[in-house]
UniProtKB/TrEMBL annotation:
Pfam families attached to this UniProt entry: ECH_1
Family from the record: Belongs to the enoyl-CoA hydratase/isomerase family.
Domain of life assignment: Bacteria
InterPro entries, alphabetized: ClpP/crotonase-like_dom_sf, Enoyl-CoA_hyd/isom_CS, Enoyl-CoA_hydra/iso, Enoyl-CoA_hydra_C
Organism: Extensimonas vulgaris
MF (Gene Ontology): catalytic activity
Protein name: Enoyl-CoA hydratase
């Protein structure tokens, strides 16, 4: 998992935490084919690596992601969009299906596809002053990159339609009020807070995190009885892990448990 400083996606590792840094700062990390291809490749690499226990997604330079690359889409709208989304749609289910929690570290601007990418995360930490722009409608298009799946689940259908159909920008305080993000922090504290959270999660029971993510995200498609059954199956599975045994032993010993994601 290596990349040069010129790569459109940088892969950084600190222990069990992997950071994917979208790296087109001159274009505010707008997603073109080369970035989508590099992102897909990076996600495939980490999704099969059991030693990865937390993932951070961030953007280089002055912003998170300014959306899709309009130069690419203007030159070849239909094929350009199809090629980029084919790659992203291959990568994103792999990324969100990982047991490792996904944290978005967001600053500057998250517009269009950048906002959609942000909403995929399990935790979202945002710098004060960040601006959000659900700009799709102003370009005469609908949303992509999972926004139509994630946004109604977070804010409800009525608010999701308002956000996407009016396309009005909003700030970090409004995003927090709507429940779109977890924390708003001073810009100079964002990276440290993100890494602190990532390391905390990486030391946790990764298999249980994965079970929780799947239960929560799939609950909208199940009846209550089916959800109870899914909880039972997941809970019983967790009972058979080494992490559960470590947690129980630590409880009786009045010590902090050490989880190994096994």
């Amino acid at each position: 998992m290596t990349a040069t400083a010129e790569s459109p996606v940088l892969i950084e590792r600190q222990g069990a935490v992997v950071t994917l840094c979208l790296n087109r700062p001159a274009a505010l990390n707008a997603v073109d084919y080369t970035l989508a291809e590099a992102f897909c490749r990076a996600v495939k690499d980490i999704s099969t690596d059991a030693s990865v226990r937390a993932v951070v997604l961030r953007g280089a330079g002055k912003g998170f992601v300014a959306g899709g690359d309009l130069a690419t889409l203007r030159a070849n709208p239909v094929q350009g969009a199809s090629d980029i989304l084919t790659l992203l749609n291959e990568a994103l289910p792999l990324l969100t299906a990982m047991d490792a929690p996904l944290i978005a570290q967001v600053h500057g601007v998250a517009a269009g596809a950048g906002l959609s990418l942000m909403l995929l995360a399990d935790f979202i930490l945002v710098a004060e002053g960040t601006r959000f722009a659900p700009a799709y409608i102003h370009l005469g298009t609908c949303c992509d990159v999972g926004m139509s799946w994630n946004l109604p689940r977070i804010v409800g259908l009525r608010r999701a339609l308002e956000i996407t159909m009016l396309g009005e920008p909003f700030d970090a305080a409004e995003a927090l009020q709507m429940g779109l993000v977890n924390r708003v922090l001073p810009a100079d504290q964002l990276e440290a807070a993100t890494q602190e959270l990532a390391q905390r999660l990486a030391a946790g029971p990764t298999l249980a995190y994965g079970a929780l993510k799947r239960l929560m995200r799939q609950s909208f498609e199940r009846s209550f009885a089916a959800q109870l059954d899914a909880e039972k199956q997941s809970f019983v599975h967790c009972m058979g892990t080494e992490d559960f045994r470590a947690g129980v032993e630590a409880f009786y010993a009045r010590q902090k448990p050490t989880f190994q994601a096994r």
